[in-house]
Design goal:
Elements (H helix, E strand, L loop, with lengths): L1 H14 L26 H37 L7
C-alpha cells in the first residue's frame, strides 16, 4: 500500500490527476479541502509510455520481422527437393 501511495502522490503532484480510469472523488495524498480532481491519470501514463517505449518497441518489431525472414529462409533450405531428370 505504501508503494501505491508513493506512486499516486507523485502523479498527483506532477500531473494534477487522481484515479486511473476515472477521476477520484478525493485526492490520495492532498488535503480534502482541495477541490476534487477532474483529470484521470491514465492519459498521462499512456503519454509517458508512448514516448519512452516507442524506439524499443520498433526495434523489437524489426527484430521479429527479421527473425521470421530468417526462419522462412532456413525452412526453404530444409525442404527436400525432388530430383528432376
Amino acid at each position: 500500500m505504501n508503494g501505491f501511495l508513493k506512486v499516486m502522490g507523485a502523479m498527483e503532484s506532477e500531473f494534477g490527476c487522481s484515479g486511473i480510469c476515472e477521476p477520484n472523488l478525493f485526492w490520495y495524498t492532498r488535503p480534502l479541502t482541495n477541490p476534487a480532481p477532474t483529470l484521470r491519470c491514465l492519459d498521462n501514463m499512456t503519454n509517458i509510455a508512448t514516448n519512452r517505449f516507442m524506439i524499443p518497441g520498433l526495434c523489437i518489431l524489426v527484430g521479429g520481422v527479421w527473425l521470421m525472414f530468417l526462419w522462412i529462409f532456413q525452412y526453404c533450405l530444409w525442404c527436400k527437393k525432388e530430383d528432376e531428370d
